[in-house]
């Protein structure tokens, strides 16, 4: 009996040692860059440890899961398509691997950044990592954008920078509070839309740290002109340190990803509504292959009622990319991307509270996206906000200091289950 107890003790200790995470240094993926439609993308573990349950999830640069699969062990493969069978857009992807031996309890996890090549359609502009306030409110900027970041979210919002009005938004709220909506006349609404003709400039900078080395940044400037507001800005995405591997899995160097968009916007007020248009030049480098292109965004914002605002944005209208380099997996042709439609509604209460809801439709995808956000002005110089974008939670705050707005927000990172961080600053001259 004593020996039986000793044997059981040894088995328990051995099992406890086995039921832990192991080193995933032997897990590699190839080929990188991978061109969907040219063979399959493969992940294997060369550590020699047996596994009988391996799950693979593929995420795009914005943390959206595009495909997943469950395998009875290594190797695991991916054909470069999303869950609807469509080839994924070129760019950066993160492949998450979770391996487990259900008999011993041994498990391990690893996430690998890869590049998908074969061309470019300029879809990197969809991410929306611009302005802490709008990220924190669920990325519903098409309806509430009212500063220099409107260059990205909705150029119609630039007209809000013509900020000196004969009757203020607060005064309209007070009228609605004390006398009802019927006391707000058409003249009030017209006055509300009138702007100061003085020359003003607002500039802003925004930076975001995403999971696994991806960084996003934006700089913009908006100028108040006699008949409208003109804006210009630059949006940038960068990911470095990606292993380049050939079709045998042999590492042959390091690669990076860089995407930039240069914006030129103009917004004009049309009474209680506003209209804006943006033209943009695009540059994308996927590994060693470069692409250039152009496109346009068109948007409008309308005060249906003094407390109800509607925004519509058509993003990437006519956007396309052309390769500057000739490679075996890249056709020398101009490739158009599908536009994205965004429709949002904002309810602005008389208690310093704003609620937003937006619907998002990427015309190349079957599903609809959504976002919900809320902002509360806790005092004259500080606001807090929260939001949800496709089940991803976000929150943040803004401090108003004289002519400065300083904002911070975070979002849940679906890949690492950690956080993405954004900070932004605007200055009005």
Provide a concise account of the structure shown.
The protein is mainly beta and 429 residues long. The protein has six helices and 22 strands.
Task: Report on the architecture of this protein.
By secondary structure, the protein is mainly beta. The protein folds into two domains: 2-116, Immunoglobulin-like (Sandwich), CATH 2.60.40.4070; 128-244 and 253-428, Porin. The protein has a 14-stranded antiparallel barrel. Helices cover 11% and strands 52% of the residues. It has helices at residues 2-18, 132-136, 141-144, 150-153, 169-179, 186-193; strands at residues 27-30, 41-45, 53-60, 65-71, 76-78, 91-100, 107-116, 201-209, 215-225, 228-245, 251-270, 273-286, 289-305, 308-323, 335-336, 340-348, 353-362, 369-379, 382-389, 392-401, 404-412, 419-428. The chain has six helices and 22 strands.
Count the strands?
22
The CATH homologous superfamily of the largest domain is called Outer membrane protein transport protein (OMPP1/FadL/TodX)
Mean pLDDT: 86
Please estimate the helix content.
10-25%
CATH architecture of the largest domain: Beta Barrel
Number of helices: 6
Query: Which class best fits the helix and strand makeup?
Result: mainly beta
What assembly state would you assign to the polypeptide chains in this entry? Answer: single chain
Shape: globular
Strand content: over 45%
Major sheet, described briefly? Answer: 14 strands, antiparallel, barrel
CATH fold label of the largest domain: Porin
List unreliable stretches of 5+ residues: 1-19, 164-168, 185-197
CATH class of the largest domain: Mainly Beta
């Amino acid at each position: 009996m004593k020996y039986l107890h000793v044997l059981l003790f040894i088995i328990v200790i051995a099992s406890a040692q086995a039921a832990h995470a192991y080193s995933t240094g032997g897990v590699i993926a190839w080929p990188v860059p991978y061109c969907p439609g040219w063979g399959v993308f493969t992940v294997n573990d060369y550590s020699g440890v047996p596994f009988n349950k391996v799950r693979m999830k593929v995420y795009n640069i914005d943390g959206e899961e595009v495909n997943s699969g469950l395998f009875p062990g290594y190797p695991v493969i991916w054909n470069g398509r999303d869950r609807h069978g469509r080839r994924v857009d070129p760019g950066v992807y993160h492949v998450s691997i979770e391996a487990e031996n259900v008999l011993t309890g041994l498990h391990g996890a690893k996430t690998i950044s890869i590049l998908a090549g074969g061309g470019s359609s300029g879809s990197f502009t969809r991410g929306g990592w611009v302005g802490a306030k709008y990220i924190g409110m669920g990325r519903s900027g098409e309806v509430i954008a009212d500063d220099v970041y409107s260059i990205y979210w909705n150029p119609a919002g630039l007209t809000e920078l013509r900020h000196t009005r004969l009757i203020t938004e607060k005064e309209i709220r007070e009228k609605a509070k004390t006398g009802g909506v019927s006391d707000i006349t058409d003249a009030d609404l017209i006055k509300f839309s009138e702007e100061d003709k003085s020359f003003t400039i607002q500039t802003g900078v925004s930076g975001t740290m995403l999971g696994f080395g991806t960084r996003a940044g934006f700089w913009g400037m908006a100028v108040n002109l006699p008949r409208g507001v003109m804006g210009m800005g630059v949006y940038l995405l960068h990911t470095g340190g990606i292993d380049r591997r050939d079709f045998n899995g042999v590492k042959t160097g390091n690669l990076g990803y860089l995407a930039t968009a240069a914006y030129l916007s103009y917004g004009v007020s049309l009474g209680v509504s506003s209209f804006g248009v943006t033209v943009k030049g695009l540059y994308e480098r996927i590994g060693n292959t470069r692409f250039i292109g152009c496109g346009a965004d068109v948007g409008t914002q309308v005060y249906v009622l003094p407390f109800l605002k509607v925004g519509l944005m058509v993003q990437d209208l006519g956007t396309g990319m052309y390769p500057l380099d000739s490679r075996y997996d890249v056709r020398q042709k101009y490739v158009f991307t599908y536009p994205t439609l965004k429709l949002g509604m904002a309810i602005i209460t008389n208690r310093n509270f704003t609620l937003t809801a937006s619907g998002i439709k990427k015309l190349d995808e079957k599903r609809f996206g959504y976002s919900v956000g809320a902002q509360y002005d806790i005092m004259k110089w500080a606001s807090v906000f929260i939001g949800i974008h496709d089940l991803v939670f976000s929150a943040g705050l803004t401090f108003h200091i004289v002519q400065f707005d300083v904002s911070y927000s975070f979002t849940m990172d679906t890949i690492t289950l950690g956080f993405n961080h954004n900070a932004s600053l605007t200055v009005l001259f």
